[in-house]
């Protein structure tokens, strides 16, 4: 973050609540100013870098009481599964369904932040598009996003991700090369029905919802495609393996998933993703399928 924030960031990382309070008291603009690099606000830094450290929630409360913007930090809390700070922000009036085209519940689903996801659902967060319905396994809502003739309704939404659209990227703190790469990814997405259904299919797979995945396959989801909308771009099998959903992995293989496909970022198969996720049983099962396919 910018130089003015450095002492406060150090206090966050050290869990030094008294030092943090003193700094904000001395310069209240620390709560309301935006940084031109790294975390855009100090409250987002607290939500992300302060998770699990002493005084984390209390530091967040200090900033909220000093006038900090709270909607973006709620999404940040969802990205790292910081339930305690997310709960504080919701209690202070943060928008549970977000204020842009990417909501806290989508952030929690994207990063598999289960504690914050449970909190948001308990508080009544809305399902606003097909990918969210798929990630939650809501087959009733998935069905409702299709017309009788099989076409998608407009409110099924479009492919998106935590970095949102081109305008948001241009205004972000990414360097120019980072902005260029993110923009290139977004421009590569197919926002037609096939692309949107394929994207939602991966959400169903990554969260282990077999009935939702089955329904989307019936709606022509492509099982071996690496769809748009993800940073570490893999197939549904990759994401099921990453999160250790053994039953989903078996279902996908039985329905034609190819265990030899490599992702487009680190060039690993689903077995490699299972290993990265800490799921040796799933990894070994997939390795055996690789050898025999």
Q: What does this molecule look like?
A:
With about 290 residues, the protein is mainly α. It folds into two domains: about 5-120, Ankyrin repeat-containing domain (Serine Threonine Protein Phosphatase 5, Tetratricopeptide repeat), CATH 1.25.40.20; about 140-290, Ankyrin repeat-containing domain (Serine Threonine Protein Phosphatase 5, Tetratricopeptide repeat), CATH 1.25.40.20. About 55% of the residues lie in helices and about 0% in strands. The chain has 19 helices and no strands. It has helices spanning about 5-15, 15-25, 30, 40-50, 55-65, 70-80, 85-90, 105-110, 115-120, 130-135, 140-145, 165-170, 175-190, 195-205, 210-220, 235-240, 245-255, 270-275, 280-290. It starts with 5 loop residues before the first helix and ends with a helix. About 45% of the residues are buried.
Produce a short descriptive summary.
By secondary structure, the chain is an all-alpha fold. It folds into 2 domains: 120 residues, Ankyrin repeat-containing domain (Serine Threonine Protein Phosphatase 5, Tetratricopeptide repeat); 151 residues, Ankyrin repeat-containing domain (Serine Threonine Protein Phosphatase 5, Tetratricopeptide repeat), CATH 1.25.40. The chain is built from 19 helices and no strands.
* Count of discrete structural domains: 2
Mean pLDDT: 96
The helical percent reads 55-70%
List the total number of helices. Answer: 19
CATH superfamily of the largest domain: Ankyrin repeat-containing domain
